[in-house]
């Protein structure tokens, strides 16, 4: 099968490419970039990308697909459909399912279920500890053989310093990165929103930024002393200015640390929690932080200190969110809003370039996880996202493919969206 994507603006940071060229796909792989009409031949399927942007397929390295155990919130199939609709060709799913993905059998179930639907690549992330209890390392080797691409207890931090030390040491044998949900549970105990002016006004217990900073600082010390040359550590959903400074400083000393931020922490603050009259769609963990933190994250995007934008897609049933703020679960969905939010609120105003956005959403996640993708070089998998920079869209959760509708961006009018998604040259979204 041949596919000619004709006349699109191809933006691929992996080969420093930003120009209008044809792209030829043969048997699921990129066969040629540029001069495609002759190579594709008369029998090729043609996709006219005139006026559109063609990029390496986007990879969301932090999602919760809820299966097994919480299929009423999301299934692997519905999550994959949401990914394809949102412009993502691949997602990495966290281990806090029921049962927890801490064994070969659960990983194999995830891989098999993803293959059955085949609308996006699903990369399971294995638990650091058995049952996410933070007491004993999970079966890292068996899970690695079954297909995990990283380790994380996300939803919970790895509290034990000794366990984190061993995770950083043993993960090297399998080439896996350790992803930390950085939160000191003692400092953050009972907190439901960022600790500051607005938590005081609302009379709600706060979750201080220091709860994240302390854990990041500890982990970086462990990485430096016990990570050796190959230990890799990644901060999930980083949210504070001080955590970013810690990561920035560690990078300058050569430590193998990376970090991700979410669109909601880049665009919203704890002020939105207050102005929304405590809408539970503004409740997530880590919580929406201060304006100072938000500005620092934007600066980190621009100066290269931040490696990845990830949605932290965390669907919940409507009934679970339709309760008092203090009782609602943490988390919002993001697979179907991330691209439009980034294009309209980060690229359009010039905070980052389009190429930098693709680096954050495709090239860097592929490199950190060690998975295919993140490039349109000849011979690469033809996982491709096509975007319009000018189409106007309104965030409408009722139209989401995800079972989760919990988003604070409901009704936002944006310019730019993903219009087509190709998986190995096969159209799966748009």
Write the layout of secondary structure elements.
Blueprint: E1 2-12, E2 17-26, E3 29-33, H1 36-40, E4 45-48, E5 53-56, E6 58-63, H2 76-86, E7 88-93, H3 104-117, E8 121-124, H4 140-146, E9 150-152, H5 161-170, E10 177-180, E11 193-194, H6 197-202, E12 206-207, H7 210-226, E13 233-235, H8 241-252, E14 257-261, H9 263-267, H10 270-275, H11 291-303, E15 308-309, H12 318-321, H13 338-347, H14 354-369, E16 384-394, E17 413-423, E18 426-429
Parallel strand pairs: 1-4, 1-5, 6-7, 7-8, 9-10, 10-13, 11-12, 13-14, 14-15
Antiparallel strand pairs: 1-2, 2-3, 5-16, 16-17, 17-18
Helix pairs in contact: 3-4, 5-7, 7-8
Structural class: alpha/beta
Q: Span between N and C termini?
A: 20 Å
In helices, the fraction of residues equals 25-40%
How much is the average pLDDT?
Answer: 97
| Integer-rounded radius of gyration | 21 Å
Total strands: the figure is 18
**Could you give a short account of the major beta sheet?**
8 strands, mixed
* Uncertain residue ranges: none
Number of helices: 14
Oligomer: single chain
Strand content: 15-25%
Shape: globular
Descriptive overview:
With 430 residues, the protein is an alpha/beta fold. It contains 14 helices and 18 strands. A hairpin with a 4-residue loop joins strand 1 and strand 2.
């Amino acid at each position: 099968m041949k596919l000619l994507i004709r006349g699109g603006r191809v933006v691929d940071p992996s080969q420093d490419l930003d120009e209008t060229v044809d792209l030829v796909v043969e048997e699921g792989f990129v066969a040629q970039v540029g001069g495609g009409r002759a190579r594709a031949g008369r029998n090729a399927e043609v996709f006219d990308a005139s006026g559109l942007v063609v990029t390496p397929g986007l990879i969301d390295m932090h999602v919760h697909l809820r299966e097994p155990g919480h299929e009423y919130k999301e299934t692997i199939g519905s999550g994959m459909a949401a990914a394809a609709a949102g412009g993502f060709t691949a997602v990495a799913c966290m281990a806090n399912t029921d049962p927890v993905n801490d064994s070969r059998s659960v990983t194999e179930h995830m891989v098999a279920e993803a293959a059955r639907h085949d609308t996006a690549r699903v990369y399971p992330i294995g638990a650091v500890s058995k049952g996410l209890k933070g007491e004993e390392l999970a079966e890292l080797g068996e899970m690695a053989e079954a297909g995990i691409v990283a380790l994380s207890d996300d939803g919970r931090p790895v509290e034990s310093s000794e366990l984190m030390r061993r995770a950083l040491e043993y993960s090297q044998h399998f080439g896996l990165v350790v992803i930390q949900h950085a939160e000191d549970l003692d400092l953050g105990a009972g907190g439901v929103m960022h600790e500051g002016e607005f938590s005081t006004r609302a009379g709600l217990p706060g979750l201080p930024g220091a709860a994240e900073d302390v854990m990041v600082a500890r982990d970086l010390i462990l990485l430096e002393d016990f990570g050796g040359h190959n230990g890799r550590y990644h901060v999930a959903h980083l949210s504070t200015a001080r955590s970013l400074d810690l990561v920035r400083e560690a990078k300058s000393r050569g430590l193998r640390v990376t970090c991700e931020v979410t669109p909601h922490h880049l665009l919203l603050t704890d002020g939105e929690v207050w102005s929304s009259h405590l809408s539970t769609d503004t409740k997530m963990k880590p919580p929406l932080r201060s304006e100072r933190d938000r500005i620092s994250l934007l600066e980190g995007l621009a100066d290269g200190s931040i490696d990845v934008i990830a949605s932290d897609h965390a669907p919940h049933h409507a009934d679970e969110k339709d309760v008092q703020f203090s009782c609602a679960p943490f988390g919002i969905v993001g697979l179907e809003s991330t691209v439009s939010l980034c294009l309209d609120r980060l690229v359009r105003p010039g905070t980052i370039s389009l190429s930098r956005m693709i680096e954050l959403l495709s090239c860097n996640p592929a490199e950190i996880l060690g998975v295919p993708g993140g490039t349109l070089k000849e011979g690469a998998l033809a996982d491709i996202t096509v975007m319009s920079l000018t189409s106007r869209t309104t965030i409408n959760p009722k139209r989401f493919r995800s079972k989760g509708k919990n988003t604070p961006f409901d009704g936002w009018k944006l310019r730019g969206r993903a219009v087509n998604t190709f998986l190995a040259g096969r159209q799966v979204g748009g």
